[in-house]
User: Fold these one by one.
Assistant:
Number 1:
Amino acid sequence: MHMQKGFVLWLTGLSGSGKTTLGDRVEEELKQRGYLAERLDGDLVRKHLWKDLGFTKEDRDEHIRRVGFLAALLSRNGVGVIASFISPYRAQREGVRKEVQNFIEVFCSCSLEVCKQRDKKGLYKKAERGEIPNFTGVSDPYEFPENPNIELHTDTASIEENKQKILDYLKGHGYIR
Ligand SMILES: Nc1ncnc2c1ncn2[C@@H]1O[C@H](COP(=O)(O)OP(=O)(O)OP(=O)(O)O)[C@@H](O)[C@H]1O
Ligand SMILES: [Mg+2]
């Protein structure tokens, strides 16, 4: 079964807010149902495509600009792209929205406290010790989406509930049946 139209599901939020976790679950579900789906994830892209880019404002902007280009290539060929990037700046996200077809901004809203408690990668501890400069939420800003297509509360609602909310949106907008 082919996806009728491509889309870019863009998960944004603080480190530890659950973007990768949710993105992987949605991908799994879409593939099980026979849809074309591809993941673009911050950690993987930075590791395999551009190790040279860091976390200054300039590098973050360039990182997201490149990812937006890839997302456009895929989505215009009918692929459901599931992108998970902190993407902390509004202008970055709006830039991608303009470049791609069917941009769906998903705000993974999670309090900084909960993200710090999870600290899955130990990054918050390092950032608080001053070992990671420009760390979003600690020493770099996160500009929350003012009008996201989907807002999830990843600190209070379960992974399953949030996955369902995304699938309901995709269904409601005719991307899946
Ligand atoms: N309701 C929830 N939604 C999402 N993740 C949850 C939830 N409850 C607990 N978690 C856990 O929180 C962690 C979220 O980590 P994850 O790597 O998905 O975050 P991330 O947003 O991708 O972070 P980063 O920007 O650093 O890549 C996981 O260990 C996940 O199991
Ligand atoms: Mg992640």
Number 2:
Amino acid sequence: MKSQKNSLDNFTACEGCDLLLPAVEAPPSHSTVCPRCGTTISRRSTHSIAKTLALSITGLFLYFPAVLLPLMTLESFGFKESANIIESIVIFYTNDYYFVAFMVLFSALILPLVLLSLIFTLSLNLRFKRYPLYLARLFRTYLKLEEWAMVEVYLLGIMITIIKMMGHSEIHYHIGILCFSLLVLVSLAITTVIDKDFFWETIERGGKGKHQPQMKFPGADKEPFVTAAERGIQLCHTCHKLSLSSSTTCPRCGDSLHSRKPQSVSRTWALVMTSVVFFIPANIMPIMRVDFLGVPDRSTILDGIIYFFHSGSYAIGLIIFTASILVPLFKIVGLTILLLSTHPRSTRYLRQKTAMFRFISFIGRWSMLDIFVIALLTVLVDFGFFSSIHAAPAATYFCFVVAATMCAAITFDPRIMWDKYTHYTKTAHD
Ligand SMILES: [Zn+2]
Ligand SMILES: [Zn+2]
């Protein structure tokens, strides 16, 4: 039992197709990729702990000026209105857009701080070779929350707002916008320098020295296309450690273990259906209301895009069209194709489908773009009777679509598509 458990350390399994692979140490700044489905197995980075620590300290210093100081001021009709992130959330909340307020609060304000604090605590401990028990739980929380922080999407929203308002009013920039831009750069840098495998290995080892080389896992080199599940092994979703299928909790990160994500197909179907239901009002109903000289003018997402094309801002029109209409549509259609592929004998283009799944997971958060633009506009354009901008009901439906499609990408397990392939080819060859 013990020798088999130890030998698992010499192997790893692919997250995308469950293929069992020898654990190869990639050279620094290189990645290893699954030969069957193309999913990245591990990405190595040098001096990961020190770099992550330095970046997280910088990020924490930038955070408070970035969110508290005004980003910019708009001057029009003799009125001046400046905006920061917190104000836009308060306005959504006071206008009863609770879910929108919650999504903006969570993704642009709370999570960036939580993530920076978590990764700072973690890398500080690892840097000074201290291994308190809570480190695994801390890193686990970080990994689960990571994709819900959307500072870079918010920054793109700021840029679009600036371009949108440029012709209409005078814009003055403040130090807040510089701090926020730097905060985005730091957050992106953290995601590239963090070597998750190395962090987990360091936490697990607890400074007790390197693992002894263990015996090879029996039969893995004889059968090249064997999955972890077929060998009675399962991969931890969070820290990617292999355990025997009989284990229920990961010995490294403490997360619960499942060979496949529980009720993956039915949960994903439910979430995709939910997104379809909300996608209709999100596009038909007005998302924004512009009051000009007391006359309200409501516009849908599509109206907003057409406005940009009419005014000659084709690039912005295209960005909003992509983020607000193409991305949610692509996610819904893409996930439906993936779900249909979990049915027996749909074993074609599995590599492409797995790549599509990775793309869907990656683009999910960018749909929040239009909401962030509206959030900024409602604060900036508040010139009393002359002109003001407000959110309209579709904003809530749109946030539901974003949240539901993101959750759907999380609950879907691409390995289920490959399971059918494995069973199908096995029976075909027998
Ligand atoms: Zn794979
Ligand atoms: Zn784990």
Number 3:
Amino acid sequence: MTDQRTRSFWTWGFTEDEPSDSQRQEAARHISEQTGKEVLPPPIPAIADINLRKPRLSIPAGLTDWVSSDKHERVVHTYGGHILELLKALRGQFDNPPDAVAHPKTEEQLERTLAWCDAKGYTTIPYGGGTTVVDGVSVPAGSEGAVTIDTDGLNSILEIDDVSRAARMQAGIFGPDMENQLRPHGYTLRHFPQSFPWSTLGGWIATRSGGHYATNHTHIDDFVESTRMLTPAGWMESRRLPGSGAGPSPDRMVLGSEGTLGIITEAWMRLQKRPVYRATAGVVFSSWQAGYEATRAIAQAKLWPANLRLLDPVESARAAGMDGKSTLLIIGFESADVPQDAYIGHAVAIARDHGGQIENSDILISDAQGKSTGREGAVGAWRDAFIGVNAGVSNGLGMLSDTFETAVTWDKWPEFDASVRREVGTALKDVLGPGSSLSCRFTHVYVDGPAPYYTWSGPVAIGTEAQAWQHIKNAASNALVAHGGTITHHHAVGRMHAPGWQIQQPDLFQEALKAAKKRLDPNGILNPGVLFDPD
Ligand SMILES: Cc1cc2nc3c(=O)[nH]c(=O)nc-3n(C[C@H](O)[C@H](O)[C@H](O)COP(=O)(O)OP(=O)(O)OC[C@H]3O[C@@H](n4cnc5c(N)ncnc54)[C@H](O)[C@@H]3O)c2cc1C
């Protein structure tokens, strides 16, 4: 790693993010109490004890400064961030690692690496932070030699254009490093996916990531001014423009390409001033329906709150300590320039019109000097739970949980939600039993529909996690697509969601995209099986 941190091979991020032994023991105690079965945290294997297949390729002498078959490198790049991948890592199962890992520090080194992979026909896997939860960075079955290209050596902000308020950044920059470099200039990208500490600009662009703001500019798409990508057929760089109606946009082809068309090396990104005015309110509803009707009305009033996060009763109990019957709507506004009192006032008035309850003293308003009135109420508890996520703490302890997310138009929403809960609820009972739970929140809200994010969990027999997960995942994916949603709103497609993606996209579009891939990646080396099988 060029920045001295070491990636963790069994949890998200770096070794410094790994849960401590005592945190894992505490989680085990908690799960033992919940399930009535005593469990202990599984031991974490030492890399030295992991059996790894011998590399199936030899690295040309001219590339060895940045390409290696070092065991540690191959182990930490075997998996992405899905819980089942992390569980395999925790159990020391590394059956299909990459044969070599490259860390190019210049575009010339990247060109030479990709040319080598292309000439030899090696499967080539672009790698940012490795936080993919959709099987986007693993070596596919059938590959006869695989090279992971980690972009962490391309991690600088190269230029800031203060006049247009944009910056040219390299793709391998991690979220916090980017914000730390922008802060002295008074800017922010203002794109905060929940994986922000461990993911990169290139990964965000490649997967069309969604930030945690609920409305208006929140997707990485909104901030991309131009992109630069190396493909096996050469460089593809778009022109910097604030907007353009000149035919199909090259950036639209790069966004969401998930490492199948090329390796994004740079992008010009639109920046924003750092917000200083803020207003927040947590409004309580007696029913889920009243909550989502209010949310729709606020979205359709086009007030563009930064946060408009609706938590169903299960979520609001778990994440904000509420009574298990109430729905919580968290509304937040922020701006670099304009006091937000009036906006929050309008949004709260709409929420009250729909039966929402909130005391005026529970509306927190801060001005540019950081002076506040009101208090935060349930919102503070929710924020702590949201930010404190840590994988690995309870993995392998007999409790299985995961999430799936989508978006659907408002006209379909009530029936959609009921069907998803019914069908996934049945699958949960089939394999996890009556102790399972399913909950929902809205992560993003559009004028024409919400992006619901479902979380499920339940006790599982240790060793059967993968089969149980697959049964539930099939039910969830089938329900999302069958009832008119998208297979993913922001977690991306990878190999995991490829079948659902293929159902929802027009056949001709997929054929056209494959033809484009054939032009850019004629030997089909880049991420085969992600999005589609190139053949
Ligand atoms: C705890 C957690 C929370 C998450 N929260 C969110 C969230 O709030 N919003 C959201 O959108 N997603 C979220 N994700 C999913 C994931 O973080 C995103 O998909 C993210 O954009 C991946 O970035 P990365 O740098 O880790 O990319 P990686 O995981 O390394 O790669 C993702 C895909 O992009 C390709 N790729 C990576 N870099 C490049 C490049 N430079 N050029 C071409 N292709 C490339 C890879 O081959 C792979 O297919 C979350 C994941 C976790 C584990």
Number 4:
Amino acid sequence: MEDIKTLLHLVRPYWQRVALAGIFSLIISGINASMAWLVKPALDNVLLEKRTGLILLLPVGVLLIFICRGIFTFLHEYLMRSASQKMVMSLRNRLYGHIMHMPVSYFGKNSSGSLISKVINDIGAVEAVVSLTLKDLLIEGATIIGLASVAFWRSWDLALISLLVLPGAFYAASKLGERLKKISRRAQKKISVITEILHESFTGVKIIKAFSMEPREQERFEDNNRDFYRENMRSVRVSEFVSLLMEVAAGLGIAFVIWYGSRRILEGTLTIGDFFSFLTAVILLYTPARRLAKVNAGIQKAIAPLQRISEVLSIQTEADGNVELGGFKNEILFRDISFTYPSSRNKALDNINLRIKKGELIAIVGKSGGGKTTLVNMLPRFFTPDEGNIYIDGADISTLTFKSLRGLLGIVSQDVILFNTTILENIKYGKPGASRDDVIRAAKAAYADDFISEFPDGYDAIIGERGLRLSGGQRQRLSIARALLKNPPIFILDEATSSLDTASEMIIQNALEKLMENRTTIVIAHRLSTVRKADRIIVMDKGRIIETGSHNELLGREGIYQKLYELQFRGQEGRSV
Ligand SMILES: Nc1ncnc2c1ncn2[C@@H]1O[C@H](COP(=O)(O)OP(=O)(O)O)[C@@H](O)[C@H]1O
Ligand SMILES: [Mg+2]
């Protein structure tokens, strides 16, 4: 009952359709009942009394009845399916929107494959079941009531006898339903694993090929696919067993009814018309009863994916603030920031205090794993500090709307994400209203115009998934052009050039310097000469700021920076000169 309520709740917005479908299902059940009802007058009044004049009426009447039933079944089906499809569509939209508003940490905890599986497979499973189940519930429920009334009217004692087998059958069906719920949950997990494998192997296809791991991936896929098959077959066995039970129960009931009914006819206490009318009702009852017994199984199957979906929907999304910040005027302040990743034991940031004035160029350096990326990820609130607050112009960033906060920031990082569309669309991703001229201007400033113009389609060239056709340096320049076009007051460069060769790096260096003009910039760098030009250099290690100062100050201090410099920057300079 609870479960039926859950399903009904989902289709509530489409109640007009469902209500109309309900009315049609009443009509259909009326037609079914009237067929059983008319057996008596047909037998007793037409055939047994040999009224030849009425004999043509029978086939014509039957034909009309079937046509009517067909039409109403069509209408009913159409309305129910459209209600359930609409429900599924809006549930899918809601789920996607909800997932997209999850904090970044959620995407760290859940693989893309399992998220895709939720939106595609779980919702698909709900869709299949809801449309069939709700339809059966309405139409078969009403039909059973109609036919049972006829059966009782014709011969109440026979009707009672044939009903005796039902409770047992329904009890068994409900027990099996519980098993189905478990099976369906396991099957849903399996299909999620399969989606994960698909996602991983298609995105990682190069690695797989490079290590010749296709056979292993194939095996992994087949193993999981086989498990999925097994779960499905388990589910088929259980739900077909329900049908088997109903079959046996119906056979028992009808056999007993025929034996008892024939005796009553021979005794003369029951007319042939009454008996066959009754029998028709009971036999017609049999199909809907079997379907209804399976409704529970269907609902149990939908419950598992529904629970997975509602689990996701119940997770809190990123809490948006409500303060609109007009622009960036004064300073960014990190105050006593500490942060530990949920999956980790060590603090990634340990009591960070940092003040960045408007227009400053701040460089963050330090060993890898020191917390540099984590620190800058706090600014767009990709992660929320466990302790401390961050202020922009005195406003706590957790009170700002994401739109106004993230609108202030331009982020260029090492891994460039390009979408599967034209270069033009990719560059104006953050500013859809930008004109073609704006895009070209940004591309020129990012030193990207040259190589773009060499493509036959120029700015309209489609770049494949993840921009496979571009080199690392070209991709990087596109991402710089994208950031330039957005033109935010604060720039964050997270090792933007560390994956590039020296020649590309020098070109990009120029692009970056253009980007930094008249802006507040935080640059995380391995080997950039930018570091030397920085107003201030922050050295991080183990989540803490261990040194700050200008290049010359830090060199004079003979601390970690000086060592890093000896190790990396001088070697780098030696190479690039
Ligand atoms: N998503 C994450 N989940 C758990 N730990 C992380 C995550 N990202 C980074 N870390 C850990 O946090 C520490 C700081 O990482 P990071 O800020 O990326 O360092 P850096 O950018 O200085 O190389 C490292 O120990 C790293 O292993
Ligand atoms: Mg990093």
